[in-house]
Specification:
The chain is of the alpha/beta class and about 240 residues long. It is built from nine helices and ten strands. The chain has one domain: Rossmann fold (3-Layer(aba) Sandwich). The structure holds adenosine-5'-triphosphate. InterPro entries: AAA+_ATPase, ABC_transporter-like_ATP-bd, P-loop_NTPase.
Length: about 240
């Protein structure tokens, strides 16, 4: 087993307030790890530390073999990131987005052309290549954003509520792409508020008030809490 994320007492305080309180967990290569919590539980603060844009005030984390405390630039180069709020440039077309984001990660023109063709073919985007990304249906935009986050073949990809606003069938299709990436060995770290998505994860953690209160497979968590659904587990914990 190869560990791609390891948090050790990972902590972030703002003055007297501890938003993330001594998180300890490991995520293996190719694992799909769901990161759940109610609003304000501390998920965004934790994720910001894991992607190297915010320094822990105590503890540390290794991500893709680099320390977030001292090697944040290397962490950033070796991960992918996609959020619901920002992922692609609406006023560029598919090719331009791939050239822009792939270029940031240092891919050359030939590789970018190959990646572009692969993405168009894999996602069936042939009818949209002349359009600006803003004209794509939301579900396709999300799939494209995920593919763009994987252009530089990162060891880990962080997905921050990647499927907000689409129906369960479209979410399910998005998850097929996640499974394919995980099968190729990419580690997936995903936050979500949708319990159907949480069910698709290999393991999930549930955060309450800055701490991880439960962490296991969806099946084991339901058993542990004597619950029929993950939603019940979640409500039990968050209460
Ligand atoms: N820069 C900051 N200064 C002070 N407090 C902060 C700061 N950033 C976050 N917090 C506080 O830390 C707590 C956790 O916030 P965070 O955004 O990480 O939660 P979250 O679990 O991501 O919630 P949501 O699902 O709503 O995004 C909140 O109480 C928030 O007000």
């Amino acid at each position: 087993m190869e560990t791609t994320i390891k948090a050790t007492n990972l902590t972030k305080s703002f003055g007297d307030f501890t938003a993330v309180d001594k998180l300890n967990f490991e995520v293996e290569k190719g694992e799909i790890f769901g990161f759940l919590g109610a609003n304000g539980a501390g998920k965004t603060t934790a994720m910001k530390m894991l992607i190297g844009i915010s320094k822990p005030t105590a503890g540390d984390a290794m991500v893709a073999n680099y320390k977030v405390s001292t090697q944040a630039d290397l962490v950033k180069k070796n991960i992918g990131y996609m959020s619901q709020k920002f992922a692609l440039y609406d006023d560029l077309n598919i090719k331009e987005n791939i050239q822009f984001f792939g270029g940031i990660y240092g891919l050359n023109a030939k590789t970018l052309q190959q990646k572009y063709q692969q993405v168009v073919e894999n996602l069936g985007l042939e009818n949209y290549v002349k359009q600006l990304v803003k004209n794509l249906p939301l579900g396709l935009k999300q799939k494209l954003a995920f593919s763009v986050a994987l252009l530089h073949q990162p060891k880990v990809v962080f997905l921050d509520e990647p499927t907000g606003g689409v129906d369960p069938i479209t979410r399910r299709q998005f998850w097929e792409l996640i499974y394919e990436a995980a099968d190729r060995g990419t580690t997936i770290f995903v936050t979500t508020h949708y319990m159907d998505e949480a069910e698709y994860c290999d393991r999930i953690s549930m955060m309450v008030d800055g701490k991880i209160k439960a962490l296991d497979t969806p099946k084991a968590l339901k058993k542990e809490f004597g619950a029929e659904t993950l939603n019940e587990v979640f409500l039990n914990l968050a209460r």
